[in-house]
Amino acid sequence: MKRHEIISILVIAMSAPWTSTGLADVSGSVRTSPNFKEGLTNVNHAWLDRIMFELSQGNLLEATNKPANDTATEGACDSKDASKSIVKLANVTYKKTVDINSNPVALKMYHRYQPKKVSEPLPAILLFFGGGWSSRNLGQMEEFCKYFAARGMICMAPDYRVSSVEGTSPYEAVNDAKSAVRWVRANASNLKIDPDRIIVGGGSAGGHIAACTEIITGYNEPGEDLSVSSKPNLLCLLNPVVDTTKNGYGSRRFTPETDKELSPFHHITPDVCPTIIFHGTDDTTVPFENVERFTQKMHDNSNTCKLVSFDGKAHGFFNHVNFRPDKDPADFKVCAEESFNFFIANDFGRGGDP
Q1: CA within 20 to 30 Å of 124's CA: 16, 17, 61, 213, which one?
Q2: CA dist., res. 164 & res. 174, Å (int)
Q3: Which run of H or E residues covers position 342?
Q4: What's the DSSP call for residue 119?
Q5: What does the alpha-carbon distance between residue 244 and residue 266 come to, in Å, rounded to a whole number?
Q6: Domain containing 309: what range?
């Protein structure tokens, strides 16, 4: 970010009063600071929080004499806001398990992007691909990983067992998702990750298993150290499956007696971590009404939950054009930027041991 952009943001953020949409906190109320009694009485904290985070990561005050064609290192995010060089690390196995026939399966972390220079523990994000718990769409989350790495985060996209390859069910997918979060937290020191700022997200079925790491109890891998929490500090969900009954998506994978066991909507409690959801209003795969009900129930339980709707958009609208060429690049950009703003506004999620 250039100096003139920083100055513009500071001027905007510190001008009073702020009452328009998009500049308030999740509850819709304008944040004010009692410490600014001489002039700055209506500072927008979300913007200031973002500026302070960017400064701490070295993202701001880019040299003005930097060549225009100077690009980041391998895996540079194509967003104009990306001013930090990032690197892609080698894939790493996080879990060894078996398929439905007891054949060995090694699950890896893919698209491991992070800032080129990491001097202190950083927030992390794990993003699960979608595909109805059946398809293995390993490339789906790569551009999101690049974007967030360019903003100063450590990013990765975990693989998990799917029915078309391993012959497994959503239960194994949830089991793997919990193992992935637990592995990251257990190895946080070596990975240079802040274990109290781990975000988990995903799209569609990937959003479902991400939500399950926080909301659904049990279904852990036998033998894992359960003293290491598999719960995230914040959720980022892209047209997620939140209801697995006949009112939502995926009921055919269950029986009428079991279709609520992995249904996030039916297990919401007052202690769910901050959550942001992106969903198209014309989604015929996962009905928009599902996430409306989910969001309302989150609010009824005093949880922070922000629903960002996309008018007229269908399932999978959020995909980057490098993965789905028919998608609108603007939708990916909104999802990425709104997500990061939400991360900053919520200090990357619930602090302390989840």
Answers
A1: 61
A2: 16
A3: helix 329-345
A4: -
A5: 9
A6: 86-345
